[in-house]
Design a protein that fits this description.
alpha/beta, Rossmann fold, two-stranded antiparallel sheet, binds NADP nicotinamide-adenine-dinucleotide phosphate
């Protein structure tokens, strides 16, 4: 069972939709159970027959064995501090790219004291297996189930088995390729590519992604 905390937003919705279409059981999480249920209803209309339910974040986390963090960076510490027990022993997939927007300057990365959002999550959740992935995958593309995805997903973690679990989930989304990005400390570089992609998107009016050549 996969849970998407903050899954009412475009990135969590898109990942849940694609993985539900691939046959995974999914739960949309939200700070508000009714909002989660409404998002799940909308997604089931796009994917009739797929397993997509909704619940409050804590219940979604408790019911899953792989939990995606799909809310903005500012929500990470307060959310994780509320539910460490529900996440203990589980694979926690951090898709967060800490970013800010300034008028006239576009998107830029927020510096994180721990090194990256994913490292901060691992510090907050010492009993969880944190994996960093999907930060460079466009929510807009994910939410169009008939559109073929394109690009690489760099996956970083200090837990080899958890990393394999997430790399296998990437393979379930047609045309996406997982690339082993090594240790969780490398997540910083992956997270900081995202504001650059956002700025490129604005210039070219596209949904850019990345490909690692030579692998
Ligand atoms: N959008 C993209 O293309 C994209 C691509 C790659 C990675 N990402 C990353 O994926 C994450 C989600 O992106 P998004 O665009 O879906 O974000 P979003 O729409 O801004 O937020 C997603 C959901 O998070 C919850 N949320 C908002 N503020 C929160 C807070 N302070 N604390 C806890 N929950 C909060 C809200 O759900 P409820 O109100 O229902 O709780 C919201 O619907 C971000 O960290 C982003 O960096 C996004």
């Amino acid at each position: 069972m996969l849970a998407f905390l903050g899954g009412t937003g475009p990135e969590g919705r898109g990942l849940a939709l694609r993985l539900a279409l691939a046959g995974e059981e999914t739960i949309i999480g939200s700070r508000d159970a009714a909002r989660a249920a409404a998002a799940a209803d909308e997604l089931r209309e796009l994917a009739p027959g797929a397993s997509i339910s909704g619940a409050a974040n804590a219940d979604a986390a408790a019911g899953a064995n792989v939990v995606f963090l799909a809310f903005p960076y500012e929500g990470q510490r307060p959310t994780l501090e509320q539910i460490p027990d529900a996440l203990a022993g589980k694979v926690v997939v951090d898709v967060i790219a800490p970013m800010q927007f300034q008028r006239g300057r576009g998107a830029s990365a927020i510096e994180v004291e721990a090194g990256s959002a994913a490292q901060e999550a691992q510090e907050l959740l010492p009993d969880s297996l944190v994996v960093s992935a999907f930060q460079n995958i466009s929510a807009e593309e994910l939410q169009e189930p008939d559109k073929e995805m394109e690009g690489d997903v760099v996956v970083c973690s200090d837990h080899a088995d958890a990393k394999s679990v997430v790399m296998d989930l990437v393979r379930k989304i047609p045309k996406l390729r997982p690339v082993d990005g090594g240790a969780l400390s490398n997540s910083k570089y992956v997270e900081q590519i995202t504001p650059m992609l956002v700025n490129i998107n604005r210039i070219y009016r596209i949904h850019a992604g990345i490909k690692i050549v030579g692998v």
